[in-house]
UniProtKB/TrEMBL annotation:
InterPro entries: Glutathione-S-Trfase_C-like, Glutathione-S-Trfase_C_sf, Glutathione_S-Trfase, Glutathione_S-Trfase_N, GST_C, Thioredoxin-like_sf. Residues 23-107 form the GST N-terminal domain. Residues 114-240 form the GST C-terminal domain. This is Glutathione S-transferase II. It comes from Metarhizium anisopliae BRIP 53293. Belongs to the GST superfamily. Coiled coil: none annotated.
């Protein structure tokens, strides 16, 4: 059984007698949701159960020796498969690859290695891992977390995030999902992106700017396993699909004004790709 709990958690994975048993270190973050959403999909499709062990990353528990033995980088999420030689897997996208390769036996959320869509999925997952995630994370940091509001940093990273969203929006313009034949098949290529897209407003970018992405996100949210996965270890503070109200809306308005002023100062003009 695999397990995840607590607002700030980690998970390790174990499969025993047909039951997926794991502890999975994670938190309510875009990367953490990758593992929990796929685990929920596997649970629904194959009856695999999971449990979780929570850690408080605010107390730097992820830096303790027991955890760095699982992930030397001291970050979440990570899993340990006790039925496969206690194999530790860290980095969200590596976890998606491992879980789907080992437990998605009917290729419901993935593709066979000899299928060209396997390579296409790898490409989009790599695009998220090396581009969208880091750029959006830095945008969120400079806009919201940094004590000093640095105009160049804000416009640089928000602008690059915007450019990348333009690429994804173009990809989804005539597709339901990122990869797959015809209009696409829901897969780990989508799961890799879900947590990040759901949190895009943290950068002051409105998902309304990208209608194809907005429709895709709403489509994915209709899946019960996605809804459950977004509850593990706790629900996100908000969703790109729901309007902000009250104090949160006012703060978002003020931050958007700062970003717009920074863009103007440095002559930023949206362009994608």
């Amino acid at each position: 059984m695999v397990g995840l709990h607590s607002v700030k958690a980690t998970t390790a994975l174990k499969l025993h007698n047909g039951v997926l048993r794991a502890k999975k270190p994670t938190r309510s973050t875009p990367n953490g949701y990758k593992a929990s959403i796929l685990l929920e999909e596997l649970k629904e499709a194959y009856g695999l159960q999971y449990t979780s062990q929570g850690i408080n990353i605010g107390q730097n528990i992820q830096k303790e020796p027991w955890f760095t033995a699982i992930n030397p980088n001291g970050r979440i999420p990570a899993i340990v498969d006790h039925d496969h030689g206690d194999l530790a897997v860290f980095e969200g996208n590596a976890i998606l690859s491992y879980l789907s390769r080992r437990y998605d036996t009917e290729r419901l959320f993935s593709f066979a290695p000899d299928d060209d869509d396997y390579t296409r999925a790898e490409s989009w997952i790599g695009w998220q891992h090396g581009g969208l995630g880091p750029m959006q994370g830095q945008a969120n940091h400079f806009v919201r977390a940094a004590k000093e509001k640095i105009a160049y940093g804000m416009q640089r990273y928000v602008g690059e995030t915007e450019r990348l969203y333009g690429i994804l929006d173009a990809r989804l313009r005539d597709r339901d999902f990122v990869v797959g034949p015809g209009r696409g098949k829901y897969s780990i290529a989508d799961i890799a992106l879900l947590g990040w897209v759901n949190a895009v407003r943290g950068t002051t970018i409105s998902i309304d700017q990208f209608p194809s992405i907005k429709a895709w996100l709403a489509r994915c949210w209709e899946r019960p396993a996605v809804q459950r996965g977004f509850q593990v270890p706790s629900a996100p503070a908000s969703s790109a699909l729901t309007p902000q109200v009250g104090e949160a809306a006012e703060q978002a308005k003020q931050l958007k004004q700062l970003v717009d002023e920074a863009k103007k100062q440095y002559g930023y003009v949206y362009s994608s790709p």
